[in-house]
Amino acid sequence: MLKNDTFLRALLREPVEYTPVWMMRQAGRYLPEYCATRKNAGSFLQLCKNTELATEVTLQPLDRFPLDAAILFSDILTVPDAMGLGLYFAEGEGPKFERTVRTEEDVAKLFVPDVGTELKYVTDAVSSIRKALDNRVPLIGFSGSPYTLACYMVEGGSSSDYRTIKTMMYARPDLLHRILEVNTLTVIDYLNAQIEAGAQAVQIFDSWGGSLPFGKYQEFSLQYMARIVAGLKREHDGRRVPVIVFTKGGGQWLEDIAETGCDAIGLDWTTDIGAARRRVGDKVALQGNFDPVALFAPPAAIEAEVERILTSYGGGTGHVFNLGHGISQFTNPDHAAALVAAVHRFSGKK
């Protein structure tokens, strides 16, 4: 029995005593204890693949802040790495792949990996983290969306304009759809394996879906996320497993996202949460949407922004407070503490 299930109840729009809060990328480089563990691991990938250390860093922010959920420490790019594309991290440049997927031959070689073998280190971490949490708070599992994963697979790393994948989308949509098909089947297997291992909610990170034009977003991103939602195990250990869909830059498509069957929509900081609530009604919960850069402001300004967002959302349940994207590595941990305390205080936690 969970000691604190406020996060899960809010996602399902059940009554809550206060607004729960967690932070995207809450286990990260802004925490000195994380940096020490990562140094001990030798590299980011080795940290992800070491069950004991992945468990340790997942719990670090919970030991420092009274957060209402933990999120699995991993990376969205473990999926294409399991497909044999050779993930590595270049110093100062972010993630890169040794092999890209750009030609008909490349696409023909793509395969759905055996999640139980190639990604067992992730599910091992989920099981270990659940045990270490001892029912303190729920554990969130996650994956990148098929389109976001495809962006990295086609571009070979991060991109400022997504020129290569969007050219493929216009010139050879059949190739991109084939990539997305493989990614979708893989993500369904991957998230279901996380749920079986103990994840109590899952989030689909559609980090780059917002770069798509209207119509193309629905065709190349949203329809595949809807298929994932439909393919997930939604009940486990006698409880519903909520699904969050987060498209960064997707505020104009909230009504469409709500139709996927997800339980909650993640919002970035560009959408007013009160307006979003009026648009989706009681169909889904909302998660968000504090600007991560506001954490560089003094605590009083952070508290004012927290109060503004909570006021905009209004009373009742269905809101999980979060950042509009991942926390910056340069954030002062004391400012993150001020955020969490303000959410609990202003929303009525005793």
From TrEMBL:
InterPro entries: UROD/MetE-like_sf, Uroporphyrinogen_deCO2ase_HemE, Uroporphyrinogen_deCOase. It comes from the Bacteria. Gene3D superfamilies: 3.20.20.210. Its main location: cytoplasm. Residues 20-29, 140-156 form the Uroporphyrinogen decarboxylase (URO-D) domain. It catalyses: uroporphyrinogen III + 4 H(+) = coproporphyrinogen III + 4 CO2. It is found in: Cytoplasm. Substrate binds at R25, Q26, A27, G28, R29, D75, Y152, S207, H325. Pathway: Porphyrin-containing compound metabolism; protoporphyrin-IX biosynthesis; coproporphyrinogen-III from 5-aminolevulinate: step 4/4. Its EC number is 4.1.1.37. GO terms for molecular function: uroporphyrinogen decarboxylase activity. Pfam families: URO-D. It is an enzyme of class 4 (lyase). Keywords: Cytoplasm, Decarboxylase, Lyase, Porphyrin biosynthesis. The record marks D75 as: Transition state stabilizer. The keyword Magnesium does not apply. Catalyzes the decarboxylation of four acetate groups of uroporphyrinogen-III to yield coproporphyrinogen-III. Homodimer. NCBIfam families: hemE. Belongs to the uroporphyrinogen decarboxylase family. This is Uroporphyrinogen decarboxylase. It comes from Deefgea chitinilytica. The lineage of its organism: Bacteria, Pseudomonadati, Pseudomonadota, Betaproteobacteria, Neisseriales. The gene is hemE.
